[in-house]
Design a protein that fits this description.
The structure holds 2 protein chains of 2 kinds. By secondary structure, chain A is mostly helical. Chain A is built from 8 helices and no strands. Chain A is globular and about 50 Å long. Classes of the chains: A mainly alpha, B alpha+beta.
Chain lengths: ~160, ~280
């Protein structure tokens, strides 16, 4: 119960809080990190596709509401990200572990999908060209989020 | 057959679940302007804003400067007055014969602290620490000492969401202060742009852009930004005017809400137009 519900929920509150208060300070030219996405990717890898999906869906819904954003946009993108992270699920007891490179790769791909779908669904007012959509709105924020996910690895290693 | 179906569903359960979640997300998207959804949003963000305001409070303790705040308020008032006088001067030169010029009267400014921001490329929103209890209502303009920041879009008891200029869903009527050319300013994800201005129109780089008399959202003559470039649109007959805003969304921590009560008739008309849009 604590491991699968309370801790993820508590960490989500912390991440949402960081996203609303600290992330704006780290934003460069409208490109900022996504702390919630890091959590979604982590839990997708840890508990599998279904958990990642449900976690992404709930986190997206809650964040859409508390941020005053467009409800549905983060829900869609985070659900997709959680589902994708679940493909890299590491079964308990297996030899594969959530090592640093694997984790960073998963975070990058999840962030890429998340940013891509968020850009598409969060507004009908802007029509992006291919370069804007893929490079500026997807790849750059994903790289930034991946870099900022490094502390998770250090924290995990210290905890292990 | 039945066992094949149940096996198929069982094997692909995650995919079905994914489709259901995605369909739910997509079906919610068009409901964002629904009054009930807005109500739920305002309660929820109000509740969460309590936490974020606690951090903001701590930051303010560390960097509090009452004198600076007073100076910023004074600056904002002077900025509005200065812009109003400039506009009136230009109007006066051009329209000497007119007897009644538009009144860009003074509105009381309510000071607020920014407690959180969404700084993505599409939704520039911020949450401030005043709400319905401070007589804030949706639609009130928000400025800082440099110019217009946005308008209030949602209000809870103690907090409000500000839809800023850097939000793709925010459009505002503006004009060139020098030539009086009118246009609609919006955020395209990278720049503030006044779209579809005829190439023959007299807009020069360096011109100051202010809010227009025709805006139903904000009073006229509030500084918005300065023209930095012109870009020919596809047809070659129209220009997109790129505007650099006076305000810096990233560093705005203190803002001022202009306590304007929009005319009921205008609100009713605006709602009618929005209803018409939704019905289409």
């Amino acid at each position: 119960m604590t491991n699968k519900i309370l801790l993820p929920a508590g960490l989500f509150l912390v991440a949402a809080f960081l996203q609303l208060t600290i992330a704006p300070l780290l934003t460069l030219n409208s490109i900022g990190p996504d702390f919630i996405l890091i959590l979604v990717a982590y839990y997708g890898m840890k508990f599998g596709q279904r958990f990642g999906m449900i976690y992404g869906f709930s986190a997206g819904l809650f964040f859409d509401i508390v941020s005053g954003g467009m409800i549905g946009s983060s829900m869609f993108s985070k659900t997709t990200a959680g589902f994708t992270a679940g493909f890299f699920y590491v079964e308990p007891g297996s030899e594969l572990r959530i090592d640093s490179l694997r984790f960073l790769t998963v975070v990058f791909f999840c962030a890429l999908l998340d940013s891509f779908f968020y850009s598409i669904f969060s507004t009908v007012e802007i029509i992006f060209n291919f370069y804007q959509l893929v490079f500026i709105r997807s790849i750059l924020p994903s790289v930034y989020t991946t870099i900022l996910s490094l502390p998770v690895i250090f924290l995990r290693n210290r905890g292990a | 057959m039945k066992s094949f179906l149940s096996k198929f569903i069982d094997r692909n359960r995650n995919y079905f679940l994914l489709i259901i979640f995605l369909l739910i997300s997509l079906s919610i998207l068009p409901l964002n302007n629904h009054p009930q959804v807005s109500k739920i949003k305002s309660y929820a963000f109000g509740a969460f804003a309590v936490f974020t305001s606690a951090v903001n409070f701590l930051i303010n303790i560390v960097s509090s400067d009452d004198e600076l705040e007073k100076q910023k308020l004074l600056n904002a008032e002077l900025m509005l007055e200065n812009s109003r006088l400039k506009s009136l001067g230009l109007e006066n030169n051009q329209l000497r014969k007119m007897l009644s010029l538009k009144d860009t009267s003074n509105y009381p400014l309510i000071t607020a602290s920014v407690i959180s921001k969404i700084v993505d490329n599409i939704h520039g929103n911020m949450i401030i620490n005043i709400g319905a209890d401070n007589n804030i209502t949706a639609g009130m303009p928000v400025i800082n000492e440099r110019g217009l920041l946005g308008v209030i879009s949602d209000v809870s008891r103690n907090f409000s969401v500000v839809r800023t200029l850097f939000n793709a869903n925010f459009k505002i009527a503006v004009m060139d202060q020098r030539s009086g050319i009118e246009g609609i300013l919006g955020w395209n994800g990278s720049n503030l742009v006044i779209s579809n201005i005829a190439v023959t129109e007299d807009i020069k780089i360096g011109d100051k852009i202010i809010t227009s008399d025709f805006s139903t959202l904000v009073p006229p003559a509030i500084p918005v930004g300065v023209v930095i470039s012109k870009r020919a649109s596809y047809s070659g007959l129209l220009n997109d005017i790129i505007v650099e805003p006076f305000v810096d969304f990233g560093i705005s921590r203190k803002v001022f809400v202009m306590s304007i009560v929009t005319d009921d008739e205008i609100i009713a008309l605006r709602k009618k137009i929005e209803r018409g849009k939704n019905d289409q």
